[in-house]
Every structure is written in structure tokens, then in C-alpha cells.
Design a protein that fits this description.
By secondary structure, this protein is mainly alpha-helical. Among the domains are: about 5-75; about 180-255, Orthogonal Bundle (Arc Repressor Mutant, subunit A). Helix content is about 50%, strand content about 5%. It contains ten helices and five strands, in the order ββαααααααβααββα. The strands form two sheets. A three-stranded antiparallel sheet has the order 3-5-4. Strand 4 and strand 5 (about 235-240) form a beta hairpin. The protein is flat.
């Protein structure tokens, strides 16, 4: 978007105003800057007009240049530089800066090539080929192989491979259940009288059997058939059978799956 300014001495795009002032075709003292800035601010406040960031930054740059040029003309002191020398040629300076960056890139690339050439200079390639009369004799892969060997290899290749079988004969399965242990204890405990859990499981040989006996005692305690007690922390667990004329309902125990 081109911003058009209107002043008593000039009317047109703001870029052209800067060009005329820089080329001394128009005196910067004859151009009031405040109305130009006010007009641009009013344009920004207008909701019907959209101003891009590029246009805004360009106007700020031009306004800053005009303000500095007018300040140098108004303020007293030695004017060491001409306005055209300092503010004219922005595009040329951008081109020079781009060329400088490009030259730096080429210089870095040249240094990289020099480093590669120096590393390559320390390598000495073999410039001579194989000696005359040198013959490479590849090994005979079929030396000593008969037709019978080939036939046997063919038969081994086409024979049906055996199906892998996982043998479990070495695995020991503990066939013990809580329900069976509950029934067994219900038959034994009335005759044993009060005893400790250690004495009850003294003859057991595996850990799983001890665990199953403990779960069976808990099941009997839940059914109200035994009384469990412990005198102290980590003390002996005492077991006492409770006499009840109603008898033990074994049907409840058979369905236990704990």
C-alpha cells in the first residue's frame, strides 16, 4: 500500500517525498511532518483499512529519516554530512551487504576445500597394478564332492522336518486343593484337640501344602468350626475345634475356589 501525503509544498506518495528531499529538489524545512504522522495514525485507526506490517515498518523508516534530516537542519552545529550521503542508497547498501555475506560463504567453502586437499596430500595411492604372471586361483568348492554326496544332501533338504514337542515330564504339579484340605481337617481336628499350626503342618513337605492348610483353617473359621488365636506378635497360632451338633456343611466347602 502506498501512503499518499498532502502538504502545502507537496502532494503524493511518501516515498517520492523522501526522494525529492534527498535529491535537494525539495527543502525539508518546507514540509511539516506532524500532519503527515497524524494522517497516518488516523489511517491506522480506520477499521475499514488494513495496513500490513511491511507497510507500517516502511512508513516508520521513512518518517524516522525525515525527522532526522529535519532535526539536523533545525539544530545548530556543524553539519559534517550531507543528507544525500547518509540516507541515499539504501538499496545499494543492502546489495553490498548481501554480496559480503555471499563472499564469506565462498571463503568458508574455500577453507574447507583447502583442508580436504591437505588431508588428501598425505595419502599415497597405489599406482601399479598386479604383477605380471600373478594368477589368482579361486578354490574349487566341489573338490571331493561325489554324486552320492549330492544325492544325500538333496534327500536331507526335502525330508520332512520333525514337529518340535515340548516335554513336561520333568515338571512337578502339586495336586492339592483347599476344598479337599478343609474336608480332611474337619475329619482330623476333632480328634486332635487344641494344637498349634506348627504342629499341624509339621509333617508337610512343600510350602504350597502349608499355604493350603492355612487357607483351609481360615475357611473353617469363617464357617464357625474352629477358633484361631495368637498370644503375641509372631507367636504360635493356636487351633481349637468347636463342637457343634449341627455338623459341618461339606457342600459349602466343595464349591470353595480360593
Amino acid at each position: 500500500m502506498t501512503f499518499v501525503v498532502t502538504t502545502p509544498s507537496f502532494s503524493g506518495p511518501v516515498e517520492l517525498l523522501l526522494h525529492l528531499i534527498s535529491s535537494h529538489d525539495l527543502d525539508v524545512l518546507d514540509v511539516p511532518l506532524a500532519p503527515i504522522v497524524d494522517a497516518f495514525v488516523a489511517l491506522l485507526r480506520d477499521d475499514s483499512v488494513t495496513v500490513d506490517v511491511e507497510d507500517l515498518s516502511e512508513f516508520l523508516l521513512i518518517a524516522a529519516i525525515l525527522l532526522e534530516m529535519k532535526s539536523q537542519r533545525l539544530l545548530p552545529g556543524r553539519d559534517s554530512t550531507e543528507p544525500d550521503e547518509e540516507f541515499v542508497g539504501w538499496e545499494e547498501r543492502d546489495v553490498l551487504l548481501a554480496r559480503l555475506l555471499e563472499l564469506r560463504t565462498y571463503a568458508s567453502l574455500a577453507d574447507a576445500f583447502v583442508s580436504l586437499f591437505e588431508r588428501a596430500s598425505r595419502a599415497f595411492p597405489r599406482i601399479r597394478g598386479v604383477d605380471d604372471g600373478f594368477v589368482v586361483q579361486p578354490p574349487d568348492l566341489l573338490a571331493g564332492v561325489t554324486s552320492a554326496d549330492l544325492a544325500m544332501a538333496y534327500l536331507r533338504g526335502i525330508e520332512e522336518k520333525p514337529v518340535p514337542v515340548v516335554r513336561l515330564n520333568h515338571v512337578t504339579v502339586d495336586a492339592v486343593s483347599v476344598a479337599e484340605t478343609v474336608v480332611s481337617l474337619a475329619q482330623r481336628l476333632p480328634a486332635l484337640g487344641p494344637l498349634s499350626f506348627r504342629a499341624l503342618t509339621e509333617g508337610l513337605g512343600s510350602r504350597i501344602e502349608i499355604i493350603v492348610h492355612f487357607l483351609a483353617l481360615l475357611e473353617l473359621c469363617k464357617l464357625g468350626r474352629v477358633n484361631l488365636g495368637q498370644g503375641g506378635t509372631f507367636g504360635e497360632v493356636r487351633i481349637e475345634w468347636l463342637n457343634d451338633e449341627s455338623g459341618l456343611e461339606l457342600g459349602k466347602v466343595d464349591t470353595y475356589e480360593g
